[in-house]
Specification:
By secondary structure, this protein is of the alpha+beta class. Helices cover about 20% and strands about 35% of the residues. The longest helix has 11 residues, at about 15-25.
Amino acid sequence: MAIRMDNVGIVVADLTAAIDFFTDLGLELENRMTIEGEWSGRVTGVAGQRVEIAMLRTPDGHGKLELSRYLEPDVIADHRQAPVNALGYLRVMFELDDLDATLVRLADRGATLVGEVVNYENVYRLCYVRGPEGILLGLAQYIG
């Protein structure tokens, strides 16, 4: 059986700010649209939903990120400031070519370093950052 991961989804309150942040990271906006209708509620189990989504892809075309902003119904829980040891969604990890330049670019968008940049066994430089709305990202630069 063949399997591949298509995308990771993140619900946000400010879709435009999240798109800007992830395009600054290096993802490319593929499309932005509103999803609604009886069929969509049957898929998600949320009847009567209206959701504005944006699909972004990595430049290599192998990974996608779906950002969603619920217009209806109201969001019922907020996990944006959960610590890294909380159950459930942890983070999305991106490998990139220049960690330092990326951190500067993302800081201009309000991203903050969670801990520090570390050297993992002379193979990767790694860190976690919090982006818009507290979204937790892992960033890695291959050095080995």
